[in-house]
């Protein structure tokens, strides 16, 4: 945790003055704290690494966080497609440096840095809290060749996600991070007829796959249906979803991204949906969102 001036361990006593405070480990409030000895021997005063972080960040023109108050809303998928779209834009200047850690480059102009690259086993869990977590975040900022103009917040339409995202927006406002906009991911399920699986119930309660028969019938009797897109709301949007929340909280609404199996597959296979002919249902939505984002950053 950070109070804006000093790092405070998550399990610290009430009224903790922070790790960098001259009173760390010595104040009356430190009595009985499990971190007392660590704080007493830790370096005091301003963190010298903050200067390095500021200098390195200064070389990057636009820095954007993708975040959410809720897990499982599609932050990683949206971040990847956002990066692919920005990387393919023409006439963009790329800052390069030989200092610090080198990101893993997915494309010639698209680099990725993750703690998972440093693990001996890709299945290993990362369990970091308090000062260790803060130290790693700081090292990513200080030692990686990149760098925030603001934040994009990703949510899904259901209330359990919007409740958490409201708190995230309030957090950004409180700490001075501009909310560039909110993206409603998985807003609805969109499928072309040819992507459907058709099942027919049996007398025993099982299901027979009759997809080939159904598609053959459509081709013979209603060919125009193959160009129709089916839409189905996965989550209840009767309360207005992310668009209504944005209007109430005074932040931009960037748009909706539908749930599309081909978009999910593009994320799994690490390639842009914009160049995948099968992603014609979902690709226009993130492209419109990214155009809005680029305009707001110029």
TrEMBL record:
The keyword Thylakoid does not apply. Keywords: ATP-binding, Iron, Iron-sulfur, Metal-binding, Nucleotide-binding. SUPFAM superfamilies: P-loop containing nucleoside triphosphate hydrolases. GO terms for molecular function: ATP binding; ATP-dependent FeS chaperone activity; iron-sulfur cluster binding; metal ion binding. Gene3D superfamilies: P-loop containing nucleotide triphosphate hydrolases. InterPro entries: Mrp/NBP35_ATP-bd, P-loop_NTPase, YlxH/NBP35. Residues 1-20 are annotated as: Disordered. GO terms for cellular component: cytosol. Coiled coil: none annotated. The keyword Nucleotide-binding applies. This is Cytosolic Fe-S cluster assembly factor NBP35. It comes from Ensete ventricosum (Abyssinian banana).
């Amino acid at each position: 945790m950070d109070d804006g001036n000093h790092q405070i361990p998550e399990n610290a006593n009430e009224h903790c003055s922070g790790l960098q405070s001259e009173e760390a480990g010595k104040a009356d409030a430190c009595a009985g704290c499990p971190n007392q000895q660590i704080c007493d021997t830790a370096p005091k005063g301003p963190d010298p690494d903050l200067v390095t972080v500021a200098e390195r960040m200064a070389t990057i023109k636009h820095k954007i966080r993708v975040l959410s108050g809720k897990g499982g809303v599609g932050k990683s998928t949206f971040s990847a497609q956002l990066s692919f779209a920005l990387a393919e834009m023409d006439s963009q200047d790329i800052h390069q440096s030989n200092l610090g850690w080198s990101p893993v480059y997915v494309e010639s102009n698209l680099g990725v840095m993750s703690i998972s690259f440093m693990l001996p086993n890709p299945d290993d869990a990362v369990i970091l809290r308090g000062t260790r977590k803060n130290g790693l975040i700081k090292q990513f900022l200080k030692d990686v060749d990149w760098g925030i103009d603001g934040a994009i917040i990703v949510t899904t339409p259901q209330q359990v996600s919007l409740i958490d995202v409201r708190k995230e927006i309030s957090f950004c406002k409180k700490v001075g991070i501009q909310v560039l906009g909110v993206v409603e991911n998985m807003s609805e399920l969109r499928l072309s007829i040819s992507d459907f699986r058709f099942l027919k119930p049996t007398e025993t309660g099982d299901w027979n796959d009759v997809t080939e028969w159904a598609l053959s019938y459509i081709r013979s009797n209603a060919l125009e249906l193959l160009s129709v897109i089916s839409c189905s709301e996965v989550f209840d949007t009767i309360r207005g979803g992310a668009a209504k929340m944005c209007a109430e909280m005074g932040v931009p609404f960037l748009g909706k991204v539908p749930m599309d199996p081909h978009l999910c597959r593009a994320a799994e296979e690490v390639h842009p949906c914009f160049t995948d002919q099968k992603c014609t249902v979902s690709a226009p939505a993130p492209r419109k969102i990214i155009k809005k984002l680029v305009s707001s950053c110029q």
